[in-house]
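Example protein was shown:

_____
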Amino acid sequence: MTVDEALGRATLRLKGAAILSARLEAELLLAHVLGVRRLDLHAAGGRELLSADAAAYEALLDRRAGGEPVAYLTGRKEFYSLELLLTPDVLVPRPETEMLVDRVLELKPRRLLDLGTGSGCVAVACAVNLPSCEVTATDVSPRALAVARRNAERHGARIRFLEGDLYGALPEGERFDVIASNPPYVRAAEAARVATHEPLLALDGGPSGLTLLARVIEGAPGALVPGGTLLCEIGEDQEADALRLARGRFSSAEVARDLAGQPRLLVAIRYSVRG
């Protein structure tokens, strides 16, 4: 069986499993098996697959058809033009989270806190693009922090990693110009249903989806410098709740929309004088 034949069969198989980007994922998985770039497959269409490679490819296709994210199968995911290493201990970075990085880069903070860093995608992207920024990243999961550290090392990003529960990981009295966070905000019942392969800890936002989100918003003023900014990703149906939680704690708060026009990012500015 040639590369082209294998890709054709794999694409049909993944389409049958309701994989929307079947051709792309078929190529990503085969490139991973062969140890080449995806673009190199086009020049190798007539190459015969070794039996061992064909078997390995079939095994990966079985797992993908069963719903396992392709990023876990390859152990890699691109985020903000950076290739990140992934394990099932961390959430697969979503494209919409790049909006969070965009806003941080616009603000150019001197000190940044990435609260609940997971794979380290936000912290690493910010540290790479703002080399003069002092970046601190926290997570309650030591396994997640191990992944984030590997990604920081991979891209030469200088980041201080702290283990602990949200703001409890920080030394007392520390303040930041910007806090960036993508906390778990999926309702518990839904999280239990969708977290077939991804870590439940990174998705479960409690019964209403607001448990962690509320703690991030309510604790932010105490960890921001006067006039500092909280950037917090939210669910599409959480705009009113996020603004309610921010009311009275910040001098201003608004929700920015993503490219699809959906509420995506709470942007809240701390009072210049504590209020």
Notes: DSSP finds ten helices and nine strands in the chain. The first strand starts at residue 76 and ends at 79. Residues 77-269 form a domain with the Rossmann fold fold (CATH 3.40.50.150). The mean pLDDT is 93.
